[in-house]
Amino acid sequence: MFKEIKNIIFDFGGVIHDIRYENIAEEFVKHGVANLGDFYSKDFQTKEMDMFEKGMITSDEFRDYIRRTTNMMLTDNEIDEIINAILIDVPCERVDLLLRLRRRYRLFLFSNTNQINYDCFTDRLLKKYGFDIFECCFAAPYFSHFMHCRKPSPDGFRRIIDEQYLVPSETVFIDDIERNLEGAKSVGIVGIHLKDGTSLTDLFDDDENLGIKKEDIV
């Protein structure tokens, strides 16, 4: 089956970039916000966060929303620090893997993100690696706040297929959130669930072949 795969679409946070959702709540507490309630997690996010990830509100509008919600006059920098606390790092071995995989497959990225996180991780990664990993590792990266569309909507996957002339049956999508795979599956793309405790590098052998279990295929 996977001998016929020519294209791989990767999720970013939780697959390539290590993240920790709990860091946001902990950062809010450090800034004196202890009772925010549900805001942003692997399984839930507010309507405003959803809009921010679709690029439907600006960074300034989102920061004003945070100030209204917390009833605190947090500075722009303080809010950015809180939102960016989710970001951990992209390990070198994953970038090395992507650079090797690109010799064999066409690689794409489809990330649910927002402008504040995007500005932060692009700057950090450029400083760390000395080159643009999105340009060097992927045929094309797709970010939800530029697309005005976020996973698991099938629309984003259709756009990637159409713009890149992909054959869905020759394409796999790898994500750590299982519900996001449903959008890929609905347009004929094979979905691979990267489960907790599994690293992206675990999915490939030394010859860059996909080697996964049937239960990981959605």
Summarize this structure briefly.
By secondary structure, the chain is α/β, with parallel strands linked by helices. The chain has ten helices and seven strands.
Question: How would you describe what is shown here?
Answer:
Helix content is 42%, strand content 13%. The mean pLDDT is 91. Helix 9 crosses helix 10. With 218 residues, the chain is of the alpha/beta class. The chain is globular.
Strand order of the largest sheet: 5-4-1-6-7
Number of DSSP strands?
7
Q: Structural class, from secondary structure content?
A: alpha/beta
Largest sheet: 5 strands, parallel
Terminal residue distance: 14 Å
Shape: globular
The average pLDDT value, as a whole number, equals 91
Low-confidence stretches: none
Count of runs of 4 or more consecutive helical residues: 10
As a percent range, the share of strand residues is 5-15%
Helix content estimate: 40-55%
Q: Give helix and strand order, one letter per element, not per position.
A: EEHHHHEHEHHEHHEHE
Radius of gyration: 18 Å
Strand and helix layout:
Layout: E1 7-10, E2 18-19, H1 22-30, H2 47-53, H3 59-70, H4 76-84, E3 87-89, H5 92-101, E4 106-111, H6 115-129, H7 133-137, E5 140-143, H8 144-147, H9 154-164, E6 171-175, H10 178-186, E7 190-193
Helix pairs in contact: 1-4, 9-10
Summarize this structure as a short list of keywords or feature phrases.
218 residues; 42% helix; alpha/beta; two-stranded antiparallel sheet; five-stranded parallel sheet
